[in-house]
Design brief:
Layout lengths: L4 H12 L6 H13 L4 H37 L5 H31 L10 H7 L1
């Protein structure tokens, strides 16, 4: 059965909540909790969105602190990554941000056309946990 327009829009909002982090996590979680009994389509998309956004937030905090620590440690304790290392870390962070945003956009697009979607690397894990 084809999802309704409302179901598609709520699923899209769940995925695009990534761009409102941490509000997006709360928004996707609210959509999941309020609509999981009424629509399997919304439940699946919102569950994936919540799980992915939580993983992204946790990994982002760890990566940010690690990168900051590498750069700051190099300033105070001698040879660190230097400017080339800091530039490399910045490139990796930006590349990761672009990939994460692309995943959310693809998830939103799949929801908009009424198809199921699982995030790469963590989608199966999210389905097993929730």
């Amino acid at each position: 059965m084809e999802p309704t327009h409302e179901e598609k829009i709520l699923a899209v909002i769940s995925h695009l909540g990534l761009f409102l982090n941490p509000i997006g996590i709360i928004l996707a979680l609210a959509i999941y909790l309020l609509k999981k009994e009424q629509s399997r389509f919304i439940a699946q998309h919102a569950r994936q969105a919540v799980g992915f956004q939580v993983v992204v937030a946790i990994v982002g905090v760890i990566a940010g602190l690690s990168g900051f620590g590498l750069i700051l440690g190099g300033l105070f304790y001698g040879p660190g990554p230097g400017i080339a290392g800091a530039f490399g870390i910045a490139i990796i962070f930006w590349f990761t941000i672009i990939l994460v945003a692309l995943c959310a956009v693809v998830g939103a697009y799949r929801a908009l056309i009424g198809k199921d979607f699982r995030y790469p690397l963590v989608g199966d894990l999210i389905n097993r946990i929730a």
